[in-house]
Predict the 3D structure of the following.
Amino acid sequence: MERHDFIDELHSWNIFSEAAFFGGDFNLVRYQKDKSNGLVDFKWCEKFNEWIDSKSLLELELMGRKFTWSNNQKNPIFSNIDQIFCSTELDCIFPLVSAKALPREPSDHVPIVWDSGCNCNIPKPRFKFEKWWLGHSDFGKIVEKVSGEKVEGNNAVDIWNGKVRKFRRVVKGWSNNVEAKTRRTKERLSREYDNLDILAES
């Protein structure tokens, strides 16, 4: 399949409206550092990253190995063309998720194991109110929406506690999404800055 056909197929996928993760051999790299010789086609890097941004996806950082593929030549070229992505909704459900590389031989690709992190014996982090929420235009709407929703309870205290629990759950998911979007924006701006440096040097 030609690269432009593959990018079109990626854009046609409609599986990102809820918690989901997927991965495989995309045969595309995101950055220059993802190839050992640094020879990449920046046009396709940009198109691949545009698709990732458009679907609000998060890439799982691979533990245990920098590259996932080798051409198995005498002077080998390594690249990171196998990735695992997840939606922000899944990231909220499995905050301790990880991806680990296994030994590559005899394949030219590295097997990758996805771990939900459910068996990790790590205490659940306490709810933390972030100061930046107060300056965000959507925060007031969230407070108003949650406070206006009906919550079952035997008395005013039960109802108040129910609304507080719901607020914590809703605002945590919203905060994760905002922070993920901010990270993607920073990555995009960093890529654009790197490309400008490369053009200036050429």
